[in-house]
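Risk register update: the risk that structure generation would not scale has been downgraded. Supporting records follow, first protein first.
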Amino acid sequence: MIHARGLTRVFTVKRQTVEAVRGIDLDVEKGQLVAFLGPNGAGKSTTLRMLTTLLPPTSGTATVAGHDVARDPAGVRARIGYVGQKNSAGEHFLVRDELVTQGRCYGLTSADAARRADELLDVLELKSLAKRKPGTLSGGQRRRLDIALGLIHRPDLLFLDEPSTGLDPKSRADIWAHILRLREAYGTTLFLTTHYLEEADSMAERVVIIDNGHIIADGTASGLKNDLAGDRITITTETEQEAARAVQLLGEATADGAGAEFRVPNAAAALPEYLRALEAAGIKVTTAETARPTLDDVFLSLTGRSLTDDDIPS
């Protein structure tokens, strides 16, 4: 569905800031739901703009939905949908009219565009809002309208750039319910960016992490967490000295005051063994807990910094 090789030295300039993509190799199969993660400036939006033909690559090749983004951009656009970070609909026309007009722009007949608009209004629960202007809708309703505009021509592949940013938790959950329902109904391939790591963790079949223009991790969320981060055991002791002794005894740990944190493959299995070893050494543990890793832990293990640092789009 997506095949991109060697996209190098691509720049977008806005307000005297530059984002670069340096050497991406990426293949996405039909029907996948892929989350594309990275901090601000990592190259996420630049990559999406290249793959959606909004920004030409300076070198390398990219084939999207069977068409080369540089040699046949019209062929790519005819087969993809793109939902950007900003609202897509205008302010002065009715919701249904916006959808019909979008369908006509993609070559649908008037009758087909009307039928498709009504279908999407129903599926995305916008039917009661058909005669409202987009500017009167709530944030969640406008986001559903954006998705409908991206799907009006039945694309094989839908790009979603931060689809739930700025929405309250209920609206975010609602948007995701609709995204997953649409995927089940139409089998659309979904390629999205998000800074809500729990969304990528729970919804995406595949997670791709980009940093400084390079892909640094690619796999399932559970696989990346198991292979690159590991579980955590966190203990507290009565004194800082005992915490330091615990780290020295068990290794692969960090101490913070009277606490210590250990990275292990399976925390539930390792905890009893650790507690027995500490007790035998005369180290009194006052609290102990285990935690599964997050995608932020994966990024931290790869880069030494948090994926959530300064990652919310402005």
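Supporting record for the second protein:
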Amino acid sequence: MPRSTNAVSSKKRRKKILKLAKGFYGSRNRVYTVAKNAVEKSLVYAFHGRKRKKRFFRSIWIQRINAGIRLYGLSYSKFIKKLAEKNIKVNRKFLSDLAMNDQNSFKEIVDKIL
């Protein structure tokens, strides 16, 4: 019986990896074995990057809220504590947007907690 190579599936699998490696430098986008390692590593970086992005945005929101609340003589931590005491549930993304773009609404929230 002749040897079966399954060439169609093998080629499809290799093409998929080389397509993902498009734009990589040197042999990383041409040689299958090197490209496979590079693609695996890049997918790991992509996964961690999505998690890191969330942390990064949260820290930006906190900095913006802190800058906005300093105008009223409070620190960020005291502001968040007073929000919790008054049972005002507003997320940091929304608060940072108010602090930057709508100071009047932000001042109303500050007045409610003071």
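The radius of gyration is 26 Å. On this basis the risk owner (M.S.) recommends closing the item.
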